[in-house]
Sequence to fold (272 residues):
Amino acid sequence: MKDLNQKVAVVTGAASGIGRAMARRFVAEGMSVAMVDIEEAVLAEAVAELKAQGGNVSGIVCDVSDNTQVEAMRDEVLATFGGAHVLCNNAGVASGRQISKEKSATWDWVVGVNLLGVAYCTSAFISHFTAQDEGHIINTASEAGLVATPMLGSYHATKYAVVGLSEALSMELDGTNVNVSCLCPELVDTKIFESTRNAPSILGIPKPAPVDLDAIANFMGTVPMNPSDVAGRVVYAIKAEEFWIVTHQKTHGRFIGRNDDLAKLRRPRPQG
Fold:
């Protein structure tokens, strides 16, 4: 798809952050966009913003960890827009706890959104894409899907899984006109560190305090990227049929170090 004009995109996690930026950029490319999110009020605000700019968008409230809701979302997308061409599996959450302190219910939540959400949405749309022999699936993994750090065990587990799922899916679709990209951003100016705001009440996780992104950037020795720049990279990857979307140069050095440790069977260590 070198020209995205008149195509239809489905974006999960579209109410904020990278998802909202991708929806904006897709509208600018002349696409119609199904904006999918679990945060109803924020989603309504995002949809209203793009409609005010003339965008052909629709908001769909959906918990991607629930396959029944995902299939209903797909049916609504196809009924509303008559088709779909780009699927961005972007919804994601993190708990930020040590593995030893992670509750089973929190594991269910993180795995449900980050991994099963990608699997369910892919399964829901893949037959449509292959039948029309046209489509592109973008799975938002993370640098955390390439290199591990302490305190994010459940997040790393799911993001490593998304990378593996994406690689396998790309191989399975080889020879078709349905392509796959794996988006591995490092630090981006989003609310991922406040994602427990959407945690089910049964988990008993208090609402998060605002996170000082500059402090995190200083700790990581990096610069937070604007989500709109990530969205631009996604559009480029679709048109260029690129698999890997790596946003920060430092990521290359980190996963080279990690892979060198693996090749030499060294004990895992944080990569600077």
Q: What stands out?
A: The chain has one domain: 8-263. The radius of gyration is 18 Å.
